[in-house]
Each structure stands twice: as structure tokens, then as C-alpha cells.
Design a protein that fits this description.
This protein has 190 residues and is mainly beta. It contains no helices and 14 strands. The strands form 2 sheets. Strands 1, 2, 5, 8, 9, 10, 13 and 14 form an 8-stranded mixed sheet that branches. Strands 3, 4, 6, 7, 11 and 12 form a 6-stranded mixed sheet that branches. Strand 6 and strand 7 form a beta hairpin.
Length: 190
């Protein structure tokens, strides 16, 4: 005769007096993307300062992207600690003109593979995996994961770097409006 184990339920009360702080940082310098290889500048940097708490959310926007074959692109975001996420690799299909891609783990859909891209908010995705590691000065230990939550609970202050790389020949483009980073922190982190 078997017995059914009891079910235990725990209620954990949320910490009261949580404070959330959100700040947006921008680098308006255009990024030129060659037919193959590293973009200029490589990397493009944003200096983040003024936070006293740990990260609970990161959102990044790539502003005014044009490219003759967007699926060639690999975009890596690196935090001051060196932790990183490949937010876009092998995504999309064909030519794009002056679109803005916002990456948010809570985006309505994953950035598509083999479909044309339009301006929108997407969950990041790395469709190339470890196929094309980025050259220095990109970190030698690159995360081939893409979720921005990899930055949660880190100190956000310092230099954030965006590495843009065109992995295949014959197509080029630019990010005419640069990029921006929106960081939310909270005093209610572990």
C-alpha cells in the first residue's frame, strides 16, 4: 500500500520598500559595418554611472540599422564585469533600411530566422552558436547565450561595449543612430 506524500505550500512575502531605478544611456556615434569583419568603431562603448543597486533588467536598442543582408550580423553586448550576451547572430533575412531593433527578454517574439526584419522589440537570439567567435578585443570567453537576464544582479556601473561583426562577405551597412542601453536596478536583489 502506497501513501501519497503531503504537499507543502510556502508563502514568501515580497520584500517591502523595494526601489527600482531606470536610466537610459546612449551612444549616437554611427557604426560602419564592412563587407566582412569588424565594424568601426569596434567596440562601441557607453559609460554607465550613477547606480547604487544591482541590475534587474537590461534593454538595448540598435538605432537606424541598414544592411544589404542582415543575416550576416553578429552583435555582442559586454558588461563592465566581462559578462556578455550574443544578442543577435544570423537573425533575419535580406536587406534592411533604417530599422530600429530593440532587444528585451520580454519582447513579444524572438527575433526571427530567415524572415525579413522590421522595426520592433524582440527577444534576443543567437542562431550561429559558436560558429563564428568574434576577434579581439571581444572577450575570449564569449557567451553564446543571448538572454539579457545574464546581466541580472551585476553592478551596472562602468563601460558597456557593443561588438558588431559581419561574418560573411559581399554585404555591408551601418547603424546610423548608434545604440542605447536602458538599465533598471533594484535594492531588492540577492
Amino acid at each position: 500500500m502506497s501513501t501519497i506524500p503531503p504537499i507543502y505550500r510556502c508563502r514568501i512575502a515580497p520584500k517591502s520598500n523595494c526601489v527600482f531605478t531606470t536610466k537610459k544611456f546612449q551612444n549616437f556615434t554611427p557604426i560602419q559595418i564592412p563587407e566582412e569583419g569588424t565594424a568601426t568603431p569596434y567596440p562601441s562603448n557607453i559609460c554607465v554611472s550613477g547606480f547604487t543597486d544591482k541590475i534587474v533588467k537590461v534593454v538595448i536598442s540598435i538605432n537606424n540599422l541598414s544592411h544589404t543582408f542582415v543575416g550576416d550580423l553578429i552583435i555582442l553586448l559586454v558588461a563592465p564585469s566581462g559578462r556578455n550576451a550574443t544578442i543577435m547572430a544570423g537573425a533575419g533575412f535580406g536587406k534592411v533600411d533604417d530599422i530600429t531593433l530593440t532587444f528585451d527578454d520580454m519582447g513579444s517574439s524572438i527575433i526571427p530566422l530567415f524572415l525579413p526584419l522590421t522595426t520592433g522589440t524582440f527577444q534576443p537570439a543567437n542562431y550561429l552558436g559558436e560558429l563564428v567567435p568574434l576577434p579581439p578585443p571581444a572577450p575570449t570567453k564569449q557567451s553564446f547565450g543571448s538572454m539579457l537576464s545574464t546581466f541580472n544582479f551585476l553592478n551596472p556601473n562602468g563601460i558597456w561595449s557593443l561588438f558588431v561583426f559581419d561574418a560573411f562577405p559581399d554585404d555591408s551597412g551601418n547603424i546610423a543612430g548608434g545604440w542605447d542601453l536602458t538599465i533598471t536596478t533594484s535594492n531588492c536583489t540577492p
